[in-house]
């Protein structure tokens, strides 16, 4: 016959520590009303009995789930992984667990995930590069402490953490001009073009390049199977062209297409990415890129959501990392 051990309760701890059950609960929640020596006695009794608090009951009692919902477009981009790492670092110190939802860059899935996290009563909700409207973000912010990462706040009700693309793009355009590139092609994947952060970055590029009358430019969108055609038409039309990719993943695809056509990236054609993912620094890649400091953004976002920072807009300063792919 198998006997199941009885689960240790708060009453058992109270009996061993010679205190009331209510006092045990207060002591284990570190109430300032309980004397340190009593807290110590309760903690020792709990440890001796192997008492583990009921997580569900604790959540109901405190109205805190201990959960953080973090929603991002995909996990294939190392930049998003760095944001998650930053948030998890803060969460660990705060005793929280980060739950990550990958939306596949679909607005409907993003909204569905957000409301699922709201149903779980998360203590914080972080949306990275969100695709939702201003009204949708405001409504979500009414239901959970919400912070947007990767773009300015669409409304004072919604805190945001981001690297301002405007000074970064001015720095990038200035570098490409000095390197001798005369025509700049800003490239988005078609499916990413509607993302609000993508629009901000594209607008910053347009505003920066318009200030330099010596450079011509264009904004274009490309499907994943249309990169070859894009390269062929631009190389044929322009003698000195540099591609500015919306992110490093797209830049790597462009680099592959340029290389198979016998073009030397950095000499025959310029190429710049965005996000500075680890592979960008590999010697065989050596891609000029923008470091948005994703880890810092993740840390700041969760600190803001949990009340550790009060600013409505937290702006991290990005850096252009110049490598051989754009030096001319």
Model description:
The chain is α/β, with parallel strands linked by helices and 328 residues long. It folds into three domains: 53 residues, 434 Repressor (Amino-terminal Domain), CATH 1.10.260; 123 residues, Rossmann fold, CATH 3.40.50.2300; 129 residues, Response regulator (Rossmann fold). The chain contains twelve helices and twelve strands. The strands form three sheets. The chain has a six-stranded parallel β-sheet with strand order 2-1-3-4-5-11, sandwiched between helices. Strand 1, helix 5 and strand 2 form a beta-alpha-beta unit. The longest helix has 17 residues. The termini are far apart.
Number of domains: 3
Average pLDDT confidence is: 89
Q: Classify the secondary structure makeup into a structural class.
A: alpha/beta
Which runs of at least 5 residues are low in confidence (pLDDT < 50)? none
CATH architecture of the largest domain: 3-Layer(aba) Sandwich
The beta-strand count equals: 12
Order of helices and strands: HHHHEHEHEHEEHEHEHEHEEHEE
